[in-house]
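Subgroup meeting minutes
Present: P.N., E.W., G.H.
Scribe: E.W.

1. P.N. recapped why we're keeping a running log of single-chain structure predictions: easier to compare across weeks, and new members can see raw inputs and outputs side by side.
2. G.H. added today's entry (292 aa).
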Amino acid sequence: MKSIRSLWFVFFALFAFVLAACGSGGSPAPGTNSQPPLVSAAAATGVTVDAATLNGNVNPNGNATTVWFEWGTSSTLASYTATASQSIGSGAASLAITANLSGLIQNTTYYYRVCANSSADQPKSSIVSFTTGTPAAAPTVQTFAPSGVTTSAATLNGGVNPNGLVTTAWFEWGTSATLASYTATANQSIGSGVASVSITANLIGLASSTTYYYRACGSSSAGTIRGSITLLITQTPGIPPSVQTLGATGITTTTATLNATVNPNSLATLAFFEWGTSPTLATFTTTTAQSF
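Output recorded in log:
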């Protein structure tokens, strides 16, 4: 009987050892879930010329988990930079994670992935990418030839392309060949398109026979650009027509032919006769005008 009791004691001791090793019926002990975290990368947001926010999702699957991003310019992330680790607990729901990057290179494609670490595994997501922006350009400005030039007035002409940014335009003009000193016309709002917009400004009260200089200008958040300097020369006042009255010919009792010479002096001219019975032509009749 003593040997039988000893055998049963050994049997129960072995059974208790197996139960302890299996964790009471084979269930994993708390905090040792064998399921690894579930990781996925999401599209980057807030992408500018030198910054971006990385996004992803991680489900800890019941184990205490830390997460981070690996990022760089290698499409395979053979070399990368890791963001700071973030602890997201040991829940069983997917959590959104983010990391802000700054100091990036403009117009460059970057790659990144989500990484996680728990007692079950260290999974990494698939690699996704984003491309930083290109800085917006300042306006493109052109100065065109003037039009409508007279002895005292002219119309200034130009073209300004906003290059996608809200832009104002104007002219600077004066008698200085370098426009070291100038007068500016009123600002014109030309929107934020990507095509050249025609701009004009009318000047009046100019001096005759005078050379003026001007340039078109445009300004946006990307900078102020001044176009090339163009000149305009106001006209010289025209010389009046030269007129000489000649003697009448073909005189009869009821008819006569009036004669004269007219020099238009390079200006479009209308000529006519004034005639009557008053020696001073205080009152007179006008003949039909003739164009020269």
